[in-house]
Write a structure and sequence with these properties.
This protein has five helices and six strands, in the order αααββββαβαβ. By secondary structure, it is an alpha+beta fold.
Length: about 200
């Protein structure tokens, strides 16, 4: 082999070494920068779409008057006020003429199911419910009055279950009216809250 061939082989080895030690890492770095640039551009586009949607939702929200917003906040509060709800249930029962034997609150349960609204799937993150068991006694007409008052309540009280207990009837009640038939009623009521609502 001549000097010329050895020189060419040395140059070939140097060029291969340059490709693997400098040019290839530089290409990899450039590719990484391009990937990051594409991710950034995508994030900017998504942020722009999100901001536009947020502006539209705020504009829609601003179309409602404050009294309607206050009614919505009362109907679907941001948290469960256990003591107030139990006091309300006792007051509602007394106003219907029923005697309250017991009111017990259950645990707050976070809802995991999603809702489809206008063809769009909405995750219910922040939605929770709490059950209250209530045992009251009185006449059937008083029980119907209780249900009517619950329907008009400022926040949602969903009747999950209702059971009729024992009834008592004495001789005078038989003579006077069957409406005087007294009994016990076991109700399970459910309230909802949504922590995504702001005051």
């Amino acid at each position: 082999m001549g000097n010329k061939s050895i020189t060419q082989i040395i140059f070939l080895i140097i060029s291969v070494a340059m490709i693997f030690t400098y040019i290839n890492p530089t290409f990899i770095a450039i590719k990484d920068i391009q990937d990051e640039s594409l991710q950034y551009a995508s994030a900017v586009e998504n942020a722009s779409e999100y901001n536009q949607r947020l502006r539209n939702l705020i504009a829609t929200s601003n179309q409602f008057n404050e009294s309607d917003k206050d009614a919505l906040r009362a109907y679907l509060p941001t948290e469960h006020d256990e003591v107030s709800i139990m006091a309300d249930l006792a007051t509602i029962s007394f106003s219907a003429g029923l005697g309250v034997n017991e009111i017990v609150s259950g645990e707050v349960v976070m809802s995991n199911s999603d809702v489809v609204f206008q063809g769009e799937k909405i995750e219910q993150t922040g939605t929770s419910y709490q059950d209250f068991s209530m045992n009251v006694s009185g006449t059937y007409d008083q029980f119907k009055e209780l249900l009517a008052i619950l329907e008009k309540n400022k926040y949602m009280l969903e009747v999950v279950s209702a059971q009729f207990g024992s009834f008592s009837l004495d001789t005078q009640e038989i003579v006077s009216s069957l409406d005087a038939l007294e009994g016990e009623y076991q109700l399970t009521l459910r309230t909802y809250a949504f922590s995504g609502l702001t005051n």
